[in-house]
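Q: What would this complex look like in 3D?
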Amino acid sequence: MNHEAPLREFLGLTFNLSNILMVTVASAIVLLIAILSTRALAMKPTGMQNFMEWIMDFVRNIIKSNMDWKTGGSFHILGITLIMYVAISNFLGLPFAITYDHVLWWKSPTADPIITMTLAVMVVALTHYYGIRMKGFKEYGKDFFRPMKFLFPLKIIEEFANTLTLGLRLYGNIYAGEILLGLLAGSLATGAFGWIAATIPTLAWLAFSIFIGGIQAFIFVMLTMVYMAHKVSHDH
Amino acid sequence: MFTLDALILGASDGFNGGDILFQLLMFIILMALLKKFAWGPLMGIMKQREDHIAGEIEAAEQSRTEAKQQLEEQRQLLKEARQDAQELIENARKQGDLQREEIITAARAESERMKEASLREIETEKDQAVAALREQVATLSVLIASKVIEKELTLEEQQQLINETIEKAGDLR
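A: Here is my prediction, written as structure tokens for the whole assembly.
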């Protein structure tokens, strides 16, 4: 399992080419699905349009359960894009992993902490941005001293804890899933006995991983909206 | 260079600043593209459908109210028509009664008149018949008288008759 990452230095920055590839692939797939399913829009939705509308309603409900739609409506697109992107990313590593010359190329992009932390930091940064934009800097600052002043240090820690847990939860789930999947796939390749012993666990774990991939995407968006609501709602 | 190694994040070693930038960029691009080509139009059509449904509901509501109103109107009209019909029937009955009375009265008068006329006619006929009879009797009497006279009138009887007749004539005058 100790595959190397295809690291390259460019303009003083380190690039993991595998991440670059998988991020691109995931984005392309999301874009493809979205555009193909909204190509022939109709008042009476059919097929994929139904699916896309279901996702929109799903995200809408997530947002509505955290804040009123008037403030939450502007995060709708962020939410849909996030849930699609994270879910597709989670699923990408499931069918296979490609290693070439001991270098791991094909995996879930979300099985890398850098990627998930990037998304998490982006989300938390957005919550701060919208908190300031929608409530004003004064209200935003005051929120750190509510409900009691001495909780201020905890509030600061909470911000970092939120960010870390948001990113690492996703990473941990997907990475662990892939490791176990890799182990099971390895047993499948050890001969007849291994094949017999590992078939059923592999199938079960694959099914479970699909479930986890979906659930984690949902949780990621849900928490995004929870944090957002904390920052932009007045009643918190 | 700043590293996250201390946190022991697993798979990758070292701080891949490039990945972060790339991921951020890709996500923003993806979101922009999706907004332009997928979510925007989809939200548009969903909004459109929402409006359409709202409009339809409103129209249905309106037509329902209209139908209710028309039903009420029709009911009113029917009621009026029924009343009118009742009135008409009543009128006709009244008129019929009146006419019957009139006809009966007229018939009665006519029959009275006819009876009167027939009575008069009968009277006239009777008078005429009596007159005719009287004439006939006179003629017959004369005939009989002449026959009787022809057969057995003797001289003295003839004389007597002449006298009688003269006498009677004198009485009559």
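A: To summarize the key features: The two ends of chain A are 46 Å apart (CA to CA). The CA atoms of residues 71 and 232 of chain A lie 8 Å apart.
Q: Very helpful, thank you.
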